[in-house]
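Sat 14:20. Reprocessing the chain from the morning session after the first attempt stalled halfway. Input below, unchanged.
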Amino acid sequence: MIKSEYKFFLFGMGDREKYIYKNKALIRYKDNKIIYAWNCCCEEIIPEEYTVILTQNDGGRVVLTENEEGFYVNDICLSSSKICLPKFEEYRYPSHLKILLHEVLINIIDGKPVPNYFVYQKPWYRDSAMMGMVLKATNNLHLIKDWVLSIDEMYDKNNAGQCEPDNLGQLLYLISLVSSREHPMVQRVIDEAKRISENGLLTGLTDFGDHRIYSTLWLKFGLQALGIEDDITSIPVEFDSYARMFWMDRRGIETETKYQNNYNRLFPYLWWAVKHFENEAIDEEFLELSYPMSWEKEASQAKYEQISQLSKVYADNKFSAPHTWHASEMFLYLIEMEK
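Finished this time. Tokens:
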């Protein structure tokens, strides 16, 4: 991971306008315009409080903060809307959970959930479904409801235009969060699943690999979320390196899996998902309180040049942060841990 050392902070959670704080200035994302710039001798970024405190050279203070009502610079509200920001006081890692929730909410832009709003312009059903679990747990589903209801394509086709079979179950799950089995896409998805099934498993490539068990587990999960019975009675024993990423339902998964070198070097959400499935303890080095906590590196479809607005170092290293699949996997595992 590339350490930021708290050099920036992002404001504009949920459907609010996006702002970037860096280099003692506040920049509006949409036009890269500097809204405020300060002469300060001290800055304090407090990620778990969604706050930046600046001490100016004349001794005055400027507080940039975001809460459930809006984003404020001192008493001036720059953007307002209702979001839910729990304190997580009953959990073992409350500060981590608050930061991770921020990293999910900050990547909802124009009502659409994206992996990272700098380098991805469209939602991915896979990442969006994981985000949906976080939004459900924190009473924030209203932020993506209109987008989900508007979906009219079974596949997001974001991975080089491929129709990835796991999208079918992810779409059903997303629909279950805000609608019912009567949604017009549900029957279309069921018919498509039957068309591409072979020996009880969905066929096709997911993340450019054969992950038919993972894809089929998503389908079962989506159908169950909508209260629809399926005729998939068992999952065959065969190799699928993604199978143990599906921690949401461990039943019937006898396939072996293996860690891959790039799981934590490039795509840490895969590593966290397997840890969650195995219910393994997480070393403290992976629980360092930082900002941002989530990231992705060298993804094939990301447009890294676009994150230079935030960080040229990120762009040069093909690195994006925060990242919603990673943030969601961390959040959903940490929220299960005892105090």
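Residues 85-334 form one domain.
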